[in-house]
Amino acid sequence: MNKFSHLDRNGKARMVDVSGKAVTTREAVARGAISMKKATLALILTNQVAKGDAISTARIAGIMAAKNTPGLIPLCHPLQISSVGIDFYFERKKGQIVIESRVNVTGQTGVEMEALTAVTVAALTIYDMCKAVDKEMVISDIMLVEKRGGKSGVFLRS
């Protein structure tokens, strides 16, 4: 197991110095899900949520979250993100929405945290917009699916 790069030799938290790292194109894909009553999903799919278009709002919230990750997660580097995409997949029989984010940057550090933050905030936004009709929604399975670029190369979840 590798040692934690965010700890100095005394075990204290620090921001990693990336100044010596090569500038490369980097990409991260994250995924998560929000499960709900089938009736709640039906409201979302027919755009009948009282607060408005839950999917468009969640997409914008996810994009904004990726761009603001360094303000939310301590020690994250501010990045000049090239693109953020958020997609939604509807599992009607399960009453579930699968959310996937894809974040790209050309820089000295990766965008895994930005992709994970995008998925999380998109799911939280759906929860917020639908909580009046379904307080039992569950946000789950948030994970890194894929990462490309940088010294560590490619990661693909099996």
Question: Could you please describe the fold and organization of this structure?
Answer:
The protein is α+β, with helices and mostly antiparallel strands. The protein has a single domain (30-156), classed as Alpha-Beta Plaits. Helices cover 28% and strands 30% of the residues. It has four helices and five strands. The protein has helices at residues 38-45, 54-67, 69-72, 112-130; strands at residues 24-35, 81-91, 96-107, 138-148, 155-156. Strands 2-3-1-4-5 form a five-stranded antiparallel beta sheet, with helices on one face. β4 and β5 (155-156) form a beta hairpin. The longest helix is centred in the last third of the chain and has 19 residues, at 112-130. The model has no long low-confidence stretch (mean pLDDT 95).
Task: Summarize it.
The longest helix has 19 residues, at about 110-130. α2 packs antiparallel against α4. With about 160 residues, the chain is α+β, with helices and mostly antiparallel strands.
How many domains comprise the coordinates?
Answer: 1
**Treating each run of at least 4 consecutive H or I residues as one helix, how many helices?**
4
The third-level CATH topology is: Alpha-Beta Plaits
How big a fraction of the residues is strand?
25-35%
Topology (SSEs and partners):
Elements lengths: L23 E12 L2 H8 L8 H14 L1 H4 L8 E11 L4 E12 L4 H19 L7 E11 L6 E2 L2
Helix pairs in contact: 2-4
Keywords:
alpha+beta; 4 helices; five-stranded antiparallel sheet; 5 strands; 158 residues; Alpha-Beta Plaits
